[in-house]
Amino acid sequence: MLLIFPPLAKACEPPAGIARLAASLEAHGVPCRTLDANLEGQLWLLEQPLAAADTWSRRAFKGRARNLAALRDITTYQSPDRYRRAVSDLNRILALAAAETGVVIGFADYQHATLSPLRSADLIAAARQPEQNPFFPYFSQRLPELLAGVGTVGFSLNYLSQALCAFAMIGLIRKRFPALKIVIGGGLVTSWMQRPGWCNPFGDLVDGLISGAGEEPLLALLGSGAAPKRHVTPAYTSLPLKEYFSPGLILPYSAGSGCYWNRCSFCPERAEGNAYRPVPVSHVLSDLKLLTEQTAPILIHLLDNAISPALLHALAENPPGTPWYGFARIDEGLADPEFCRALKRSGCVMLKLGLESGDQGVLDRMCKGISLALASRVLNNLREAGIPVYCYLLFGTPGETAVEARRTLEFVAGHHQAINFLNLALFNMPLYGDEAREYGNQPFYEGDLSLYTAFRHPGEWDRKQIRRFLESEFKRHPDIAAIVRNDPPQFSSNHAALLCRIR
């Protein structure tokens, strides 16, 4: 079997999904190959001559090897200006290399001028004309090299930015290798299939779609008679670990699927009914020990929606020996100063925290299960322990108006010394969430694959007003402006942890 991670996503670490699936298949005697077409495709595109370019673009193209080397050199992250210049120049090359195909490409995005990943008809159109995809010259040559002796091809499709490229690759395989079985899975496919009344529109292109964990369905599809093993350590060594856009390997690891809290009213995981399935802590610790010995990473990225308290305590007591970061909930555990210091000693270089709002009423309406007093203690404890915070805020929920948004501004400004990075998001209402029944009234994006609904805000706090507030008030507060400037362009939290690691 060939497992493919298609363009386009941030290519600063290997794809954890196909590493996990490949290990499971091999453990059950199923030969498996992996292809990170996302990384390979971007590296290929960076080498394509530019048809026409201005002075900046010609300079960027000439210096592409130097800038790639800079992203793979830890000293670059000690110089914010040098880092930003390298990312900006390389990102410009990607954009220009794809411009003639009507696609806007960056390190973190893929947007087609006319085709939308939210419309199944457009994905089918991408499959029917794969030669129009900007990566076609790459994958039309690369895929035949890997498909000899392969009976099944699997695509790991997690982000909207991957969908059009994935279906272009599927279209090529279907045309040139019609006997091959094609199956797709991943987070985005799971979200599609969790929609009530889901009906697969891709029956003529793919032989199977997989929702959720793919190990057992893949084994069944491939006719393996063995009983699925309960746990298999992911396998990364078949991937090009030295080629990613980072100064050494960032090892991604998922210690569970879903969210252990799973009560937030706005959460897509809850709206889709995804249960929390943790990997036993003992397995996590042994996996991290083995994987760090095999791959010598410079950083571990824990991918969980929220690292469980049990795992946080286990990491504090059994440091993995490599710096690490991930998402955590604001809870009583982090309100303990000594526990925060223990996390720092264990190698924690950054925690991502979903504060969402600085207004207690909004938090209560969201069912976040936290108080602002607790959040304040946690932020101060982490600061004193030396653990930087990447703070996530969500504006425009039904319980928020401009009054509550300004309270968030005041809270963030009041804790600016404890917040190192900010992610500012506008609320998207899940199409099948609890509140959609009360407020949702029309499609948010046009397309049969859209996952969100538009809604009439009860406080008339619309998206235009929110954007104006963020640009004219929130980001202009001097203490907050300084935080916003810290965010690494394109790679955001994935590279923010590197900036924290070298401090």
What's this model, at a glance?
The chain has 503 residues and is α/β, with parallel strands linked by helices. Helices cover 42% and strands 15% of the residues.
Classification by helices and strands: alpha/beta
How many structural domains does the protein architecture include? 2
The name of the CATH architecture of the largest domain is Alpha-Beta Barrel
Strand order of the largest sheet: 8-11-12-13-14-15
End-to-end Cα distance, whole Å, is 43 Å
Provide a count of the helices.
Answer: 21
Q: Would you state the CATH class of the largest domain?
A: Alpha Beta
Overall geometry: globular
Major sheet details:
6 strands, parallel
What percentage of amino acids are in beta strands?
A: 15-25%
CATH superfamily of the largest domain: Aldolase class I
Which fold name fills CATH's third level, the topology of the largest domain?
Answer: TIM Barrel
Average pLDDT reading: 92
The level of helicity is 40-55%
Q: Indicate the low-confidence ranges by residue numbers.
A: none
Radius of gyration: 23 Å
β-strand number:
18
